[in-house]
Design goal:
This protein has 427 residues and is an all-alpha fold. It is built from 22 helices and no strands. Helices cover 78% and strands 0% of the residues.
């Protein structure tokens, strides 16, 4: 049954079938092979998305769309540029800082790349940067979306492994996200020196700094409102997502005054389309995971790994290798739904901090979005930047090596993931 499951899924992926349908097709083939009643497939697809916590996903997606429609990207761009734009490679640093701020609102790498990322690529090209390099930098930095809270991936992880503290895991993404942003900035500086990418010559007065900062404050308040409200117990993560929608609507309509009522139908349509794609992946992944469970794959794999008596660090290394290979072909969300219920209990039994392991998994699988040859984020950025994929990938490797270095640090030092949540009382 398991052999049929994986063979069917791999064949469908090789034929170019979307991930969600490849997972569902594999589950369907395994059920047919084992003569399982076909009613089981829709049953487990719907049970996989019939979860209260998943209601946060469409609201966070809608929040990002509303804030983008409210000219958030331009506001954050001006705010970031005034601090780093004058340095060597200033436009690249502005790209990194803008996407870092935006990731605290969107929770999605694709939203970061297609929204503010597209604007930054165009501005970098106009400033003399190589188009392939601008696209590579944007792809590499956009992975911060699923890492820095609020994060859709974190919500799915907490559903796949209920023993982890959701609020703690959200907070745990802050420091790793900042480390990745710093690593991207270091690579950008080195390449900018080598290629003579200069900073902006525009001199800003203190009035400009005050005006740009004042304009950015309403946007920067949103992630603080979300995390602060959840951490204080004022509202649950699902309630926080609803509060975020109303705040985004208020900010775009009243504060920035750039969100028009006529824009709402298209914003709602885009949000619904993205939500449907996310939930379809989650539902099909749940059916795929059910076939694995009834085949006792998680139990047998757990017994085998525990029997090897690996030390925690060796287990983390093995998991990193597995996830890096797995993430090349599978998107993060199905990867989390399928693998986390198997691996997280083993990590816990070995004494690995739940928050550290969660962040390592999320960072690792998110990196798969920009890992050739399949990385979905690469295709989106290539289309947005109008750059051939091969040219983008050629410029991407230094950023990938830097992210691997950060992943190694997260694996070696648990405090980088769990230190901040522990400070707030989450373990």
């Amino acid at each position: 049954m398991v052999t049929v499951l994986f063979v069917a899924c791999i064949v469908l992926l090789a034929l170019g079938v979307p991930v969600a349908f490849a997972l569902g097709g594999g589950a369907l083939a395994a059920m047919l092979w084992q003569h399982v009643p076909l009613v089981a497939l829709p049953k487990y697809v719907f049970s996989g998305i019939d979860l209260f916590a998943l209601e946060a996903v469409p609201f966070f997606i809608l929040t990002a769309e509303l804030m983008t429609g409210g000219e958030l990207s331009a506001v954050l761009l001006r705010f970031a540029s005034q601090f780093v734009g004058r340095f060597r490679g200033g436009m690249g640093h502005t790209n990194i800082l803008t996407l870092t701020f935006f990731s605290g609102i969107s929770g999605s790498a694709l939203a970061d790349a297609a929204g503010p990322g597209a604007i930054m690529i165009r501005m970098m090209r106009d400033d003399g940067y190589d188009a392939g390099y601008a696209a590579a930098l944007t792809s590499a930095t956009s992975i911060l979306g699923p890492i820095i809270p609020p994060s859709i991936s974190v919500i799915i992880y907490a559903l796949a492994y209920p023993d982890v503290n959701l609020v703690g895991l959200l907070i745990a993404g802050v420091v790793p996200g900042i480390l990745i942003a710093i690593a991207m900035a270091a690579i950008n500086h080195v390449i900018s020196v080598r290629r003579n990418y200069r900073g902006a010559n525009v001199r800003l007065g203190w009035r400009d700094y005050l005006r740009n900062t004042w304009r950015a404050i309403p946007a920067l308040v949103l992630p603080v409102l979300i995390l602060g409200g959840i951490a204080s117990g004022a509202f649950t993560p699902t309630e926080a997502s609803v509060v975020a929608v109303f705040y985004a609507l208020f900010a775009g309509r009243v504060i920035y005054r750039t969100l028009q009522w006529r824009m709402l139908p298209s914003i709602l349509a885009r949000s619904a389309l993205m939500t449907a794609s996310v939930l379809l992946i989650v539902g099909m992944s749940a059916a795929f995971a059910w076939v694995l469970t009834v085949s006792r794959v998680p139990q047998n794999l757990t017994d085998w790994i525990v029997g090897m008596q690996l030390p925690p660090l060796a287990f983390l290394f093995a998991v990193n290798v597995l996830l890096l290979a797995f993430g090349i072909f599978i998107e993060p969300l199905p990867g989390i739904v399928v693998l986390v219920p198997i691996l997280a209990p083993i990590a816990h039994a070995l004494g690995i901090d739940d928050l550290q392991f969660g962040i390592v998994v999320i960072v690792n699988l998110t990196m798969g979005m920009i890992t050739p040859p399949v990385g979905g984020l690469l295709f989106v950025t290539s289309i947005v930047a109008r750059v051939p994929l091969a040219r983008l990938v050629k410029e991407l490797w230094p950023f990938l090596w830097a992210q691997l270095a950060v992943l190694a640090l997260l694996s070696l030092f648990p405090v980088l993931s769990s230190g901040l949540p522990n400070l707030f009382g989450y373990r």
